């Protein structure tokens, strides 16, 4: 309470100072809209600078948003020189006098500066990176790509941006959504979006933290941001049709086929896509695979917690069939609509090997496993967004998302556990078949009202989430000769509301008061039956069945003060969260019930300082809580793998987290270089980790659950002492003499992870470091290559047994080459050598993956291409993974595609007007 009182005193003091200044100086709000003179599209990220004619120190700065709108608050009434600039456009300059409380500059159209663009291209002196407020803007002209490249290929050349099969990161943070000219593009699926957009239509790439819709409408930063990448298209590529069609066939029935078609007509954008192949090419994100727990089966040692349909795009051999459509348009001057639909079906076959060493107080035990899995997953996903300005003071925003997922999987598993002397302790041989489906619906409605006083607003945010899930599985244990049928019905219904009121304070300050209420009801009904021979009769198992009802309710009042002066932002806030969690086991003989209440203060701090036009420094602190899920609180035993059982813990407490984030972005325009650094620190009280008990002798519980010697039972437990620190640094600079871009990135990490094994605590300290050096060509569109070296290492120290300490590292050296020769001949080459060192080295952990292709372009403007390619020329492709926790270390290897040849025809569609 003392801290709370001190903060309130400071806020009141600041408010009084600001109000005193306000009484002496008249203020105004200046706003307007920036658009392209030729096609009327908004100029996202254009900079607006207002310099006081008499005192240049009293200047205002703003950046146009996704709709081209800009607003400068608390502008003193005086004469100003307005300067509006955007790369590739003529600078707009005008002297204005501010005399009114509100000054509308109206619609300002900037004209393309074609002459200066040509001059820049000739001189080869293109500005590669700019810092526009909190937006990092990359100029596509500074990065040369081949004519057939996608936006994914383009951004992978840019410093600080890393593209992998798992997603896109910018300065160490995951990019959560990609916009196209400020509009949503296929929901929140960055890889799908970037693969769909051709590189030759891209003008700029902008990376920034997008505020939440409620914060944007209220003009107040609530700390809820989404890492966003906005793709700005070239002005002459915004009207027309473009895309790609391809089909290929190879040996052993391997094939690929697909199409991407875009129809752009000003504000109206329509994109169609389709794909079918059986060579592991997947263009969907993780959101299309999750939602049905345990969908991938539970036979393996890794099946202990929440699971996803498929563990990763590189595991096994996958056949994929997908299609989608994206639509956006301005339905009227006040209404915009964005929507997308996506469908995919994937069939995955995987043979996997796994070795795990579990740490004990007096030694270790070793588990090995062989598993064969077949999974058929189908997903439908629909996203809708409607933005309507009722009038100049009222607006309405509606967002809806619906997805339906259906999954069938079957697996067979053989596993064996050995002791230190390599003597068998136990073994399992089982089969597992599951059928799962899930519907996920979420809806969000925001209403905002602006009062006559500038900066005074009120908004209401209503949200609903509904997710029913059905799971049925049949488990056969060939060792114990048992057959078990599991049926689970689960649903979650969540409703909430947030009211926010903002009030201007002084010349540059603002106060926001908010209240959030949320109520979440989750019901899990699990029925377990032991089947007699030939499934002629079912015997209900009370110990393995339960009906859990969990009600979680939160109240969150809060207050924030924010000050935005000359682009420098300071925001401090304090909320109080009261949470009540009611958990009931309705099927329990003792009718188990638990009621828990939590009360916590949640402070927050955010500040951003502009380092001139060359960069900025950002700091954010936030306290958060993590509430145990209904499944973590249940007591029923999950024995779907008799060697790796799990159960909940009704005594779990909520965890309290501290999150601190530093970011520095610096640009060096004299050498066209960019530097970024990010440090993230997280610590948690009552961290929810795992406690594992090793069964010492064969036994049977009162409910008939067989416990085999050496089997493990894992349950969630609260721990103190969790720490996580991560630093990422990236630097990019052009090497003009050889026309290459040098990209450097490095990372350091530390994790302190507590755990419990047989009642004995073990803390695993993991020190990690990684370095990547890349040399990317910037010579011409006919010569495109990327050479890189990457090394990553970790050292793990265990408090339980020092002899189990480990250190391991991975090395990768590789290159990609695309060369276009005269008469349309093309050579493509991609090779990488990977080596894993450390841990047990149970597998052959070094291999070379070499892909090569020869192609000939033909037809008008070389739109057609015929390519003969080979995948894995040396036949060495592998998939290998290592994992270390406070309780075990593990190596796994999965099935992959190996050498095949394929002949592919591709046609590039380009028709702009």
Overview of the structural elements:
This protein is mainly beta and 913 residues long. Among the domains are: 2-110, Immunoglobulin-like; 126-237, TonB-dependent receptor, plug domain (Ferric Hydroxamate Uptake Protein, Chain A, domain 1, Beta Complex); 742-913, no CATH class. The strands form 6 sheets. The chain has a 26-stranded antiparallel β-barrel. A hairpin with a 2-residue loop joins strand 11 and strand 12 (173-174). The radius of gyration is 29 Å and the shape is globular. Residues 409-429 are annotated as: Disordered. InterPro entries: CarboxyPept-like_regulatory, OMP_b-brl_3. This is Outer membrane protein beta-barrel domain-containing protein.
Describe the secondary structure blueprint for this structure.
Elements: H1 2-24, E1 27-36, E2 47-52, E3 59-63, E4 69-76, E5 79-85, E6 92-97, E7 102-110, H2 114-123, E8 129-132, E9 135-139, H3 151-155, E10 161-164, E11 167-170, E12 173-174, E13 177-180, E14 183-184, H4 190-196, E15 202-211, H5 213-218, E16 225-233, E17 239-250, E18 255-265, E19 268-277, E20 317-330, E21 335-360, E22 363-389, E23 394-418, E24 424-450, E25 457-477, E26 482-505, E27 509-531, E28 538-540, E29 546-565, E30 568-585, E31 593-610, E32 615-626, H6 630-633, E33 637-638, E34 644-647, E35 655-668, E36 673-685, E37 687-694, E38 699-700, E39 706-707, E40 712-719, E41 722-735, E42 740-757, E43 760-777, E44 783-798, E45 806-820, E46 825-838, E47 846-858, E48 864-871, E49 879-884, E50 888-894, E51 900-912
């Amino acid at each position: 309470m003392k801290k709370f009182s001190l903060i309130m005193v400071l806020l009141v003091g600041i408010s009084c100072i600001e109000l005193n200044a306000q009484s002496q100086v008249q203020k105004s709000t200046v706003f307007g809209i920036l658009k392209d003179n030729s096609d009327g599209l908004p100029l996202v990220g254009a900079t607006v600078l207002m310099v006081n004619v008499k005192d240049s120190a009293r200047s205002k700065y703003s950046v146009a948003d996704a709709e081209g709108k800009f607003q400068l608050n608390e502008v003193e009434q005086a004469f100003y020189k307005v300067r509006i600039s955007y790369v590739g456009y003529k600078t707009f300059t005008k002297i204005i006098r501010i005399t009114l409380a509100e000054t509308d500059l109206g619609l300002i159209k900037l004209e393309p500066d074609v002459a200066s663009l040509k001059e820049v291209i000739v001189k080869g002196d293109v500005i590669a990176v700019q810092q526009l407020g909190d937006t990092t803007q990359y100029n596509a002209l500074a990065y040369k790509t081949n004519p057939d490249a996608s936006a994914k290929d383009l951004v992978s050349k840019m410093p600080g941006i890393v593209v992998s099969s798992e997603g896109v990161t910018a300065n160490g943070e995951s990019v959560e959504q990609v916009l196209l000219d400020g509009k949503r593009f296929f929901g929140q699926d960055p890889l799908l979006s970037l693969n769909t957009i051709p590189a030759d239509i891209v003008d700029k790439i902008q990376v920034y933290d997008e505020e939440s819709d409620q914060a944007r409408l209220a003009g107040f930063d609530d700390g809820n941001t989404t890492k966003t990448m906005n793709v700005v298209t070239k002005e002459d590529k915004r009207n027309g049709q473009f895309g790609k069609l391809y089909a290929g066939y190879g040996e052993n029935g391997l094939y690929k086929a697909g199409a991407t078609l875009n129809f752009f007509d000003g504000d109206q954008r329509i994109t169609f896509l389709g794909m079918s192949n059986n060579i592991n090419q997947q263009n969907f994100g993780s959101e299309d695979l999750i939602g049905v727990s345990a969908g991938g089966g539970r036979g393996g040692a890794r099946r202990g917690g929440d699971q996803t349909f498929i563990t990763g795009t590189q595991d096994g051999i996958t056949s994929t069939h997908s299609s989608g459509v994206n639509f956006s348009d301005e339905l009227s001057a006040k209404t915009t609509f964005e929507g997308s639909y996506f469908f995919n079906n994937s069939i995955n076959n995987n043979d996997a090997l796994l070795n795990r060493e579990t740490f004990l107080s007096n030694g270790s035990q070793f588990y090995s496993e062989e598993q064969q899995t077949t999974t058929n997953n189908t997903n439908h996903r629909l996203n809708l967004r409607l933005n309507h300005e009722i009038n100049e003071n009222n607006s309405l925003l509606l967002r809806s998302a619906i997805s339906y997922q259906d999954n069938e999987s079957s697996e067979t598993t053989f596993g064996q556990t050995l002791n230190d002397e390599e003597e068998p302790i136990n073994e399992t041989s089982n089969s597992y078949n599951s059928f799962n489906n899930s519907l996920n619906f979420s809806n969000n409605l925001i209403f905002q009202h602006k009062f006559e006083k500038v900066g005074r607003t009120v908004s209401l945010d209503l949200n609903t989430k509904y997710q029913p899930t059905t799971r049925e599985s049949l488990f056969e244990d060939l060792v114990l000769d048992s057959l078990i049928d599991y049926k689970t019905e689960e649903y979650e219904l969540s409703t909430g509301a947030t009211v926010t009121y903002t009030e201007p304070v002084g010349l540059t300050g603002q106060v926001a008061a908010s209240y959030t209420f949320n109520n979440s009801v989750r019901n899990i009904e699990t029925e377990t039956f032991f089947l007699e021979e030939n499934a002629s009769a079912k015997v209900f198992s009370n110990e393995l069945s339960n009906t859990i009802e969990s009600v979680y309710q939160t109240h969150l009042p809060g207050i924030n003060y924010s000050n935005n002066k000359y682009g420098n932002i300071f925001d401090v806030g304090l909320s109080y969260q009261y949470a009540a969690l009611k958990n009931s086991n309705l099927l329990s003989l003792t009718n188990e019930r638990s009621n828990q209440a939590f009360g916590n203060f949640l402070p927050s701090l955010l500040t951003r300082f502009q380092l001139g036009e060359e960069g900025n420094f950002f700091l954010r602190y936030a306290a958060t809580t993590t509430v145990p899920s209904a499944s973590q609180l249940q007591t029923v035993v999950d024995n779907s793998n008799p060697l790796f059982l799990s159960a909940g813990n009704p005594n779990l407490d909520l965890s309290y987290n501290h999150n601190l984030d530093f970011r520095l972005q610096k640009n060096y325009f004299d050498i066209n270089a960019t530097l970024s650094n990010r440090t993230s620190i997280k610590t948690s009280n009552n961290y929810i980790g795992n406690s594992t008990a090793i069964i010492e002798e064969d036994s049977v519980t009162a409910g008939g659950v067989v416990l085999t010697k050496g089997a493990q039972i894992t349950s969630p437990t609260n721990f103190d002492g969790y720490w996580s620190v991560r630093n990422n640094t990236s630097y990019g600079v052009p090497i003009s003499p050889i026309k290459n871009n040098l990209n450097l990135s490095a990372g350091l990490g530390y994790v302190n992870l507590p755990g419990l094994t047989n009642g004995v605590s073990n803390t695993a300290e993991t020190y990690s470091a990684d370095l990547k050096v890349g040399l990317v060509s910037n010579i011409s569109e006919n010569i495109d290559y990327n050479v890189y070296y990457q090394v990553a290492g970790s050292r793990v120290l265990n408090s339980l047994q020092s002899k189990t300490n480990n250190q391991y590292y991975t090395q990768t050296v590789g290159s990609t080459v695309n060369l276009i020769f005269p008469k349309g001949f093309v050579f493509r080459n991609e090779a990488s050598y990977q080596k894993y060192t450390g841990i047990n080295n149970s597998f052959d952990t070094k291999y070379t993956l070499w892909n090569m292709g020869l192609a000939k372009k033909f037809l008008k403007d070389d739109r057609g291409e015929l390519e003969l390619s080979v995948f894995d020329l040396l036949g060495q492709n592998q998939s290998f993974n290592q994992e270390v926790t406070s309780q075990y270390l593990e190596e796994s290897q999965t099935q992959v595609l190996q050498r095949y040849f394929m002949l592919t025809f591709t046609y590039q569609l380009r028709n702009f007007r």
